[in-house]
Each structure stands twice: as C-alpha cells, then as structure tokens.
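Kindly go through the following sequence and its backbone structure tokens. Advise at your convenience whether the structure tokens fit the sequence:

___
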Amino acid sequence: MNRQQRFFRIPFIRPADQYKDPQNKKKGWWYAHFDGPWIARQMELHPDKPPILLVAGKDDMEMCELNLEETGLTRKRGAEILPRQFEEIWERCGGIQYLQNAIESRQARPTYATAMLQNLLK
C-alpha cells in the first residue's frame, strides 16, 4: 500500500458540443485518482448530467485503460490537484457510498482508496 497516490483534473468538451458551444458553457471536468501507475477512481462531471463515478474492478471497461505515464497527465501543466480537492468532489458526488457498495459486493479491486475506506468504517 505504499504506492504513490496522484490526483488529476482536466477540462473536457464532448466532441458533439465542440462547435455548438463556442463559449464553453458545456465544459465538463474529468477527475482521476491513480494508485501507483494505474487508475483507482475516476469521475466525470457534466454541467447537464449527474456525475459519473467509476472504481477499479467494478467499472474497468469504462475507465481510462492507460497507465499514468501513457496518459501524459504528469506533463500537463495544472492538471495535478491535491488529494483533498479530489476527495471533496468525490464525497459530494456520492463516491463514498458508491465505493462502499462496490466493496461490499466484492466488485472493487483492492486499492489505496478501498483500504482507506475500510479502515474508516472499522
């Protein structure tokens, strides 16, 4: 469990909205928590839709499949955020309950996030 934990946030615009919305009002945010080289949790926040929460194991098919180095996030200026910035949004969007449900149904892959939540619930 002593792998490096890194957190990222980058803006995105859905390709379909790119030209319809020149003022970027439909800009969303993509958040990622990497546990070592692999993604552990991911969020997509869209201005006109409920948040999308994903956890390793349960949602692997919908998550970023590149390792941290391959994503280029570490070289993108301003993309890395503090852990508490990620956790605040994760909690506000119902991430604790989502991860807890995935753990209880044995769908979550063991990560730093699952270990921390299990310790918190003891």
Remarks:
- The beta strands are 5-12, 28-35, 38-45, 52-55, 80-81.
